UniProtKB/TrEMBL annotation:
This protein's name: ABC transporter ATP-binding protein/permease
ABC transporter domain location: 331-567
Protein location: Cell membrane
CDD domains recorded: ABC_6TM_Tm287_like (cd18548)
InterPro entries (UniProt xref): AAA+_ATPase, ABC1_TM_dom, ABC1_TM_sf, ABC_transporter-like_ATP-bd, ABC_transporter-like_CS, P-loop_NTPase, Type_1_exporter
Domain ABC transmembrane type-1: 16-298
Keyword Transmembrane helix: yes
Gene Ontology CC annotation, any one: plasma membrane
Species lineage: Bacteria, Bacillati, Bacillota, Clostridia, Lachnospirales
Keywords attached to this entry: ATP-binding, Cell membrane, Membrane, Nucleotide-binding, Transmembrane, Transmembrane helix, Transport
């Protein structure tokens, strides 16, 4: 709760003003029935017009103050709750940006989206209710009960007994309702996950004609959420009829006994009238408290989920004294081991001892799951090595400021991502102030200019979110151009030319020698043709180095490399290379 409330920040003033105006509103509303009783007893029954006018004006002033206070309380409550929700979303988003990959792996994407949307909205509504109704209801309950006992202690015992009965019934309903609402939030995560998975893989869904199955799957999740919500709301709906039953029973009893008191002369008509008003106020306050209990309990689950994001500590930190310059593109792995789950005993990489000179072109090849992507992720410090040391430019990557390191180690990841905006907007992710001419040169090096020049709007063509309006090969070439704009010390291509033909792949690699001659280039690939011209080739097998040499030497000495080469070239060469 502390982590969440710290985001109130500049809206603390609005919060306290809401509570202050709410208290003033309650005081005015509690006093109005008392003034009404005086008008009836001292004015109407005594035919005293000056008293009626004086008390009537006073009551109008009090009603005006109550109205003004209520309006101001509503205004400040809206400002405080909306601002609080805005701060929460911003703080969560910024927090997620600081997470390492290992931190993000602990949360599902759907779970983070739900936390920033549904959970924050529920906390916002609960907070707005708490600073108004949670102040108003207890005060109204307390002041109204005091006024009832001031008017007639014996009659007040009647509604006090009814109050206890109502409280017990409402608590029983609330306990069952809260348990159901806690299940509802888990269903929200499942529903969001289904939507996200379906939209992200819509091409696969359509290719395999699985729309009906996906529709049924979503409908099942939505129906489960519907059933739980109806069950919870059905129980909550009992609150109103139960309260009305108790209230009207209470009013009937007070009317019966009050009539006897009036006949006996121990109570006036004005007093019984104001007593009815206070009884209704007490019952309504109790009803509001029951709703606060439900909303508060629901929001506690939301707060807990939001707090998990704030409590998650980023596993990667900059050192106190950071190195702010990468000298060159040399890379050294000194007996490095790495595991995604430390202590699990399952090493993804084991005892990697590897030394790459600045400006070299290194190919990496190996089977699926052998640790190729994990290896290059350690270079830009997306993860930290479990054992050993990774060095770039002769310094441990943990000594660098992470922004400095990542600006000098440009990575084109296996999963290429483009953002909504023009082609130029996407390219300038690599260099924010890049001119259009610089972007054109980078696209020429990445062979992206070939298709960009054919587009009607050229470099101003709009790219949809995720790059859905360009092909896989076009997306890969744009991502390579974006990385080239940084002119980094180290360029890593993680299987990022798999969707382009071999001829284009060869053109891109030749262009690297001209565009970034001094940059260390690491090329992960599944096909031999993409890496055979590299200075040296690393063969990985089950997280270990199986070979590290030139193409010719590996063909002679490395069985795994030779098997891959023969399987890809036997019978006519690569898929788009002439035999």
């Amino acid at each position: 709760m502390k982590n969440v409330l710290t985001q109130l920040k500049q809206y603390k003033k609005d919060t306290f003003l809401t509570m202050g105006f709410t208290m003033l509103e309650v005081i005015m509303e509690v006093l109005i029935p008392f003034i009404t009783a005086m008008i009836i007893d001292d004015g109407l029954e005594q035919s005293n017009m000056p008293v009626i006018i004086r008390l009537g004006v006073l009551m109008l002033v009090m009603a005006g103050v109550s109205l003004f206070s209520g309006a101001m309380a509503g205004k400040f409550a809206a400002s405080a709750s909306s601002g609080f929700a805005c701060n929460l979303r911003e703080a969560m988003y910024i927090r997620v940006q600081d997470f390492s990959f290992s931190n993000i792996d602990k949360f599902s994407t759907a779970g983070l989206v739900t936390r920033m949307t549904t959970d924050v909205t529920n906390v916002q509504n609960a907070f707005q209710m708490l600073i108004r109704i949670a102040v108003r209801a207890p005060l109204m309950l307390l002041f109204s009960m005091i006024m009832c006992f001031v008017i007639n202690r014996d009659l007040s015992m009647v509604f006090l007994g009814a109050l206890c009965v109502l409280a017990v019934l409402l608590i029983l309903i609330m306990q069952k309702t809260v348990a159901i609402f806690q299940k509802v939030f888990d269903q929200y995560d499942d529903l969001n996950a289904d939507v996200q998975e379906n939209v992200a893989a819509i091409r696969v869904v359509k290719a395999y004609v699985r729309e009906k199955r996906e529709n049924d799957k979503f409908c099942k999740a939505a129906q489960g959420l519907y059933d739980l919500s109806v069950k919870a709301e059905g129980l909550l709906a009992l609150n109103n009829p139960i309260m009305m039953l108790v209230v009207y029973a209470c009013i009937t009893a007070i009317s019966w006994f009050g009539a006897h008191y009036i006949v006996a002369g121990s109570m006036t008509t004005g007093e019984i009238t104001s007593l009815f008003s206070y009884v209704m106020a007490v019952m309504m306050s109790l009803m509001m408290l029951s709703m606060i209990y439900v909303m508060g309990t629901m929001s506690i689950a939301n707060v807990r989920r939001i707090s998990e994001v704030f409590s998650e500590k980023p596993e990667l930190h900059d050192p106190e004294k950071t190195v702010m310059q990468v000298k060159d593109g040399s890379i050294d792995f000194d007996h490095v081991s790495f595991s995604y789950k430390q202590g699990s005993g399952e090493a993804t990489l084991e005892d990697i001892d590897l030394h790459i000179r600045s400006g070299e072109t290194i190919g990496i090849i190996g089977g699926t799951g052998c640790g190729k992507s994990s290896l290059v992720n350690l270079i830009s410090r997306l993860y930290d090595a479990t054992k050993g040391t990774v060095k770039v430019g002769g310094r441990d990557v943990r000594e660098y400021d992470m922004e400095v390191l990542r600006n000098e180690v440009s990575v084109v990841l296996q999963k290429n991502v483009l953002f909504s905006g023009t082609i130029l907007d996407n390219l300038r992710w690599g260099k924010e102030d890049a001119s259009e001419e610089e972007c054109r040169r980078a696209c020429e090096a990445a062979c992206a200019d070939e298709f960009i020049n054919r587009l009607p709007d050229g470099y101003k063509t709009w790219i949809e979110r995720g790059g859905t309006n360009v092909s896989g090969g076009q997306k890969q070439r744009l991502c390579i151009a974006r990385a080239l704009l940084k002119k980094p010390r180290v360029l890593i291509l993680d299987d990022s030319t798999s969707a382009v033909d071999t001829a284009t792949d060869a053109k891109i690699r030749r262009a690297f020698q001209i565009y970034i001659p001094g940059t260390t280039k690491i090329i992960i690939a599944q096909r031999i043709s993409s890496v055979q011209d590299a200075d040296r080739i690393l063969v990985l097998d089950d997280g270990r180095i199986n070979g590290f040499d030139t193409h010719e030497h590996l063909l002679e000495s490395n069985e795994i490399y030779r098997d891959i080469y023969e399987s890809q070239t036997q019978g006519g060469g690569d898929f788009d290379t002439a035999a």
